[in-house]
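Write out a record, focusing on structure:
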Amino acid sequence: MNEDLTIVSLLDLSKTMAAAIFDGLTYPWEALPKISEFIMTVGPTLSPDEYEQRGENIWIAKSAKIAPTAYLSGPLIVCPNAEVRHCAFIRGSAVVGADSVIGNSTELKNCIIFQSTQVPHYNYIGDSILGYKAHLGAGAITSNLKSDRSMVTISVPEGRIDTELKKFGAIVGDNVEVGCNSVLNPGTVIGRNSTVYPLSMVRGIVPKDSIYKKQGEIANKIYPNSARRLRPL
């Protein structure tokens, strides 16, 4: 088991209403095939004082702000105070966290968006999980299918982890910032508090507290209270 890729290392489960979906799992991508069933199980139990049902397997918090031009398809839960903006396209099997922003022309499919997360402009999030307070700049997308249609694997020092998934975009940890027009290739995992430069093509693992500049060039972040300059990874 690679500790850096585990659920507890990447995601604060107290910041999502979908925490139960991760019960008994080791790696966050193991939750991806379970999203649809989770929504259809939990949706009918949501309080009618807080949520309203808008069509088949669609539950929207009454405090959420939904643009009239947004397309919503179930299974879907949109949590309190979330905002779904003009021409957003939610294709189903999505949990949109409280206080999050799904922006204009952004597309979601089979994903979990944690609380206070922003995908505000022209983003595609497919078969992915975005952690608490993650932010994707305009045009940043998750690529969820390899060009040869083979199963997605993740390279680690010990070898390769077979995710047993044909469609798997990215796991974006808490407080991650992804720059504009970046592409997160299938099976990308970005650790907590890391930053990805704009126009990046990211593949593989970006460690926590890092700055991804380009393939092969990842630096440790320097925090104001750091007593020394951290060496590049």
